[in-house]
Every structure is written in structure tokens, then in C-alpha cells.
Amino acid sequence: MTGNGWHDHVAAPGADESWAPLAKAARHAAVSLGYPAAPCLPGEPEGATCDHGYADHALAYLVALKAIADRAIALLAPPPGLADDLYAGVAAELAGWDGRA
Predict the structure, then answer these.
(1) Cβ proximity of 41 and 27 under 8 Å
(2) What is the pLDDT of residues 53-63, one digit of tens each?
(3) Integer Cα distance of 99 and 90 in angstroms
(4) d(CA 88, CA 9)
(5) Fewest CB within 10 angstroms: 55, 57, 68, 101, which?
(6) pLDDT tens, 48-88?
(7) Under 8 Å CB-to-CB from 1, ≥6 apart: which residues?
(8) Is 99 exposed, middle or buried (0-12, 13-18, 19+ CB in 10 A)?
(9) d(CA 98, CA 13)
(10) Does pLDDT of 1 surpass 50?
């Protein structure tokens, strides 16, 4: 991740390998959208890891994606209520999802 101080503040629960797919996918999405996320997941090339687990990385990359999405939505300037309605629909679809399935 970039030098935004996340290493000092992230303490996500469940820092185990079950969060690896989400961390990897969230990083890939962030990079695909232009966010400069360095390879530092557990097990990546020696010297690149930052000593944080997969859950910490998943949280950090998802927060980056949220910021990217919020900015893009603001730039799109949708009609009032449209983004909220779409968000509510997606949130309802995800009601039973635990992030690891």
C-alpha cells in the first residue's frame, strides 16, 4: 500500500489465510482502478512483505476501493437517490456473504 499510515492503525480480526482470496482480489481491483498498491501480502517476494496478515490487507484494500468508488460516484453525479437505491439493492444481495465464500 502507499504511505498513508495504514500500517500503524490496522488491526483487523481473523488475520488468517481464509482472507487471502479477498485480499488478493481487492488489491487486484484497486490496482486495476489505478491505485498504487505494492505487493506485500504474506508469502510474496522476500523483502516485500510488511508483516501484516491477510485480514489487515483485505481491510486496507477494501477501504481504498471504497474511496475510489466514492470518488467515481461523485464524478458521475448521478440523479439524487439513484446511487443509494442501487447500493441498497446490492447490500440486500450480500446480506448472507461473509467475505470469504
Answers:
(1) yes
(2) 898 899 999 99
(3) 14
(4) 29
(5) 101
(6) 768 788 988 999 999 999 999 999 999 999 999 999 999 99
(7) 7, 37, 38, 40, 50, 57, 60, 61, 64
(8) middle
(9) 13
(10) no
